[in-house]
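Re: weekly structure request thread

Next one in the queue (641 aa):
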Amino acid sequence: MDYRLSFLLSIFKKEFVEIYPMADADATTSMEQAANINLQLIGEQAEAMFGVGKGNSILEVDDEGGRMFLRVLIHLTMHEYPPLVSGALQLLFRHFSQRQEVLHTFKQVQLLISAQDVENYKLIKADLDRLRTLVEKSELWVEKKDKKEKVEILERLNKMCSTGVWKKQQRLLKNMGAHKVMLDLLQVSYDKSDVKMQEIIKYTHLFLQKFCMGNQENQALLHKNLNLFLNPGLLEAETVQHIFSNNYQLCSEISESVLQHFVHCLATHGRHVQYLNFLHTIIKAEGKYVKKCQDMIMTELTNAGEDVVVFYNDKASFNTMLELMAESREGVGENSPLRYHISLVELLAACAEGKNVYTEIKCTSLLPLEDVVRVVTHEDCITEVKIAYVNFVNHCYVDTEVEMKEIYTSNHIWKLFEDFTVDMARVCNKREKRLTDPVLEKYIINVVFDTINAFFSSPFSENSTSLQTHHTIVTQLLQSSVRLLDCPWLQQQHRGQVEVCIKTLAMTAKSRSISLPLELEAQIGSMLSNSALSSLSRNNPNYKSSTRSSRPNISSNPWDYKNIIEKLQDIINTLEDRLKPLVNAELSVLVDVLHQPELLFLEGTDARQRCESGGFISKLIQHTKALMNSEEKLCIKVLQC
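Done, posted below.
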């Protein structure tokens, strides 16, 4: 394997150097005029590397194209000693998967291109070697100097995680087995009151979180050891959150027992936000909702009851909530009961997001609209609570799969809208000067406008009998929106959201024959006209080409990391196309060997007679039965043939 990988890399380097000589490797070299790497020649050389027969390959095991080698393996497979039979079968399967193995391993190759790459490799290797030694000698952990050294190593590795091209660093650390050392480190027993050891464990979790962040391959590696993290620890909860974060496959395949573990932790080990954060993470991944997780979380939370699902509905608890909000004027503390409550409401809203009738109904039974409005419209309500509660209203009452009649027939939503106009006025209190309250601004732009737009765009709102009665509030919402759009400090990416909301409100006013002040109508007309012109100019091909032409052309260095990796990927694609038929052919020959092993032996020999009489196949069946309990993977390989 090492020889073949080295051979392929040598071919690649030789071809690359011929196309991009080192003397030309500077920032001014243009790659556009350079010749392409001869992929066909590389493919032919790679294929020849597996040549069989005398003199065709220095890796050939005999002078008969491997037939003698196969005869030896078939003999060993009919032996009475099970470990010898298993070893012979493993070798037989590997012999007929050489091309597949080389192709798979070559895809995992990571090139150390720059001097910094080499330096990083040396540093990581030295640190991991030392850490392995210290983990293996667990009795040394009681020594203060060893603990200090481990902290220093972990600090260096964590720092490396935050510098350079992180994807490249993640791959390098994976290839060097850094995660295996960290997993071993987490399994070392220690005194839970040992502060220094707690620091070591914290750094270990931070490393693992960075190791799998945004990297599905690394997430899958840690997921194999998921049980190691399924305990009440908060660091463990955060690491599990990173393992599943934005990974649709892992989220959609999650078992019910994992969810139950975290809900159980909430009930028995305290209402910690970290547990809720994990549950929130698995609801949506890669832009897709995981309905299975939404349903399971909703069921588990409902079953958990008041120990986990904490609301402030009655008079006494509502006063407690007002006190908590008063304490949180300068920000909600991480350990505050209010932080947990906000996270819980956000989780429930996320469970109903994407239109899920089962969770929508459950959510509305847990947190009635009347209670939401009472909290949001209270004069002491802080913005963080408003964000969570109004978002809950949007996903559980407005943007829903089935009609929630209460939202369209009662006055509750209109009380919310009135409160929206008050907060919108606070944001644009001074037209020229931006308010130094980013949380309030986020609430208005991302939550308020989204809710207004969802309500008036909903097909269910057409049946609303209360809309005409509250035409004054529709006018006020329009005036507040137009006033905000007129603020020069409003960022371009947010203007679109405000414009969409204004259009929706204006269309509603028109369809319901709500008369607007003449000045407001003129402002809306002007705004819509300017918006259309702006959209046309952005879609104009001449506008786009002039924008592109204004960017300077930057020549690339052919010896930079990106170009070298792209060329290596071209070779991998070529090898895949060229070797795939041969991989299939190898498997086909293996099947023939297992089905007719007697053809490998001369007529009249004992081995041939034994195979012809079923000695080989009966032994294979007998051994495969034994493999079911001891070597499942080998058993599956045999059965697949």
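The chain is about 70% helix and 0% strand. Residues 561-595 form the longest helix (35 residues).
Next request, please.
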